Amino acid sequence: MAGLNDMVLTPTGLRFGGQTYPCTIGKGGVSSTKREGDGATPRGTHRIVGMLFRPDRITQPVDWAVPIGPGDLWSDDPTDRAYNTLVRAPYPHSHEALRRADPLYDLILLTDWNWPDAVAGRGSAIFIHQWRRAGYPTEGCIALSRTNLHAIAPRITKSTRLIVP
Q1: How far is residue 154's CA from residue 53's CA, in Å, rounded to a whole number?
Q2: Residue 162 in contact with residue 48, Cβ under 8 Å?
């Protein structure tokens, strides 16, 4: 059952704090059998376990948000021991840069999908972040407009959950 501090994916958007915010999900839809590279958003109840932000672009949204540095990456290589965790450049395995030229990762809410004890190939980097534009799908994340993401972020707590039915 969803609590007042939960984010719930609905057919019309992401419900949080009594409001529903338009959002996009993975190009593979919602899946109960999430796999690395399938583009799907994993079904389930996920905890929000962290928040990252670009200190050169935005102010710290909450006191527990961690700045994204120039060498910060996220391992997406299922053969890597550090799969589905924050790693630092230079890095020999497949990874995703967290410090991007575009604003998509200026603010990231981290979920506990396949974390902290990642199962190889079960999927990585399931975040809530800024969308490219309305209706443009993600690689499995949930994405919101910049305005809505920045409005939600300060209200996130360590007990907030993301529910994807």
Answers
A1: 12
A2: yes
Q: How far apart are CA 157 and CA 71, in angstroms?
A: 27
pLDDT per residue rounded down to tens, the chain (165 residues): 777 799 999 999 999 999 999 999 999 999 999 999 999 999 999 999 999 999 999 999 999 999 999 999 999 999 999 999 999 999 999 999 999 999 999 999 999 999 999 999 999 999 999 999 999 999 999 999 999 999 999 999 989 999 999
Q: Which residues contact 8 (CB under 8 A, 6 or more apart)?
A: 2, 14, 15, 16, 163, 165
For residue 25, which amino acid is it? I
CA distance 150 to 103: 12
